[in-house]
Amino acid sequence: MDHPRPQLRRTDWLNLDGAWDAMLDDEARYNDPAEVPFDRTITVPYPPEAKASGVHDTGYRRRVWYRRVVGLDDTLAPSPDERLMLHFGAVNYRARVWINGRFALQHKGGHTPFSLDITRYLDGSGAVEIVLQAEDDPHDMHKARGKMDWQLEPHSIWYPRTTGIWRTVWMEKVARAHIARLRWTADVASWQIRLDADVSHVPRNCTVNVVLRLGDRTLVSDRCLVTEPRLSRIFQLPDPGIDDARAHWMWSPESPQLIDAEVSLHGADGVHYDTVFSYTALRTVGVQDDRFVLNSRPYYLRMVLDQGYWPDSLMVATSDQLKEDVLLIKRLGFNGARKHQKSEDPRWLYWCDVLGLCVWAEMPSAYGFSSETVHGVMEEWKELVERDISHPCVVAWVPTNESWGVPELMYDRRQVDFVKALYHMTRALDGSRPVVGNDGWEMPCGDFVNIHDYHADPEVLVERYGTREKVAYSLEHVQPARRRLVIDGFTGLGQPLFLSEFGGIACMEGPNTKGWGYSVAKDGEELLARYEKLMAAIHRCLPLSGFCYTQLTDTFLEKNGLLTENRVPKAPIEALAAATRGPEAQYHDWYVDPFGHSANWRARRGAVWPPAVVHTGSLAVVPGRGAARDGSAGPEDTPGGTPRKVA
Known about the structure:
There is one protein chain. By secondary structure, the chain is of the alpha+beta class. It is 18% helix and 29% strand. Strands 26-25-24-23-31-28-27 form a 7-stranded parallel β-sheet. A hairpin with a 2-residue loop joins strand 20 (285-288) and strand 21 (291-294). The longest helix has 18 residues, at 371-388. The chain is globular, with a radius of gyration of 25 Å. Residues 593-647 have low confidence and may be disordered.
């Protein structure tokens, strides 16, 4: 999937990634794009700090200027009834855009997308000049910045800065009346799918046609009259009834079934305005007493902390790299990932949807607290929730981590109220998913209790979290990292408990490698032995609803990945996966087979999961008919699935 917006795709679009003129305005001297001396070329969407950009300048950046001239051929030049849209996936931190010399837009927030209609700025020349100024104060501690270091060189857990354009830029031509936004919500209890669609410039008596398909079966083909800019409709699906039959329709990491959607806009006289392609899924997530539940059943989450960095491109990756990371996570035995301090590319979420991986989506934190922090973080977080809300893989929201951005949370009432406000605002935006109050410690609220504990002795972890009585004592008296776990009257008792950061066993690639870990193994053999003991202890902690191991890959000075930064396993991946899954995995997971025997079918047959990837050109095999949605076939005696284009 190369389209930068997987859940609202049009067939015709122009990718503007590649060579742009650029200028590094480190002293912030220029305000008028006509005066900027563009003196170099940069490869978008890679930031100037990355090798892949062709610049590889890791110094402090205040401003970066970009310029690109795009020729408008017949496929892009709009008619009087059409509009030319320009989209930016993300620009860090404040973006100002000029089109053909005229100021067009300002956007604030380094992790969220923005778009603009540039039709009014076209001058009839057959080309359009795009100039963008990206302003990003490297020392501003009150903006959302995630893991981007304020020091010149990366240190400790902090990584190189990512300035300027760092996601795909693209153009597309649309009708004046077009579909601007889609939001999908599943109501499994009623066996329904809800669509909320925003329509720009609604024509009189126009209709939206919605087609939902499961594989080659059409579930819904409906026409809806549109009278307002917002269309809300509920589509009743044909209910197969019994659980074994329903299971083939439901999304889970073991059977990531998706429902394809085609949404088109038509005029009263039958004229076609717009068609977009999307997808949704039937699945529920929530809390049942002290357990996390998926599809109304307790589900044990085995997650890994994923920083989402690559050595040559920093926070930017190709669709193939994103897909490969998801496959590696599954091969390591995990069924989920916590994307840490980063808003990941929507194409990564797409592959998590398609291949089956639960995701905790997290807000990149600010570091200091002020009114600017409150305004900036809340606005950007709202945009991120709205961007990702329709992805079935997202099973929890994490707006705050380890008191970052609220450093005096223990003593400042305003900071407590800010964390609670983020929690309640997220619940108001999306009441269908659990929300974390403050991941790690000093939790004043939350649907989960999430603890970060990097103690290297596995038996200490069992002593702290092995029984409900021990958990109750630990929440009150144990202070990992010398921090109180719960505050402001929040006890956390009776709620799902996650060890959401632990482990961090480092294994250096060579004797002269710089870096660190929370503990250190001398080689891959010792790493595996320590990982097996640690995971065995975690699986003995029965009160846990799941865990998140630190971490997937080495990332700069953090050498505690199960993989190197180039995604090479440090120990045999099958052995790591066996330790990750634990002895009871067959009772935690469920699988769907073509004969309706859903419970633990693959586990009983001893099938390897996930099996090796089998590519069939641009087609992958759809699950639900005995196939896995990673493009691989099921067991040998399983009938093949229905082909569906996924890339």
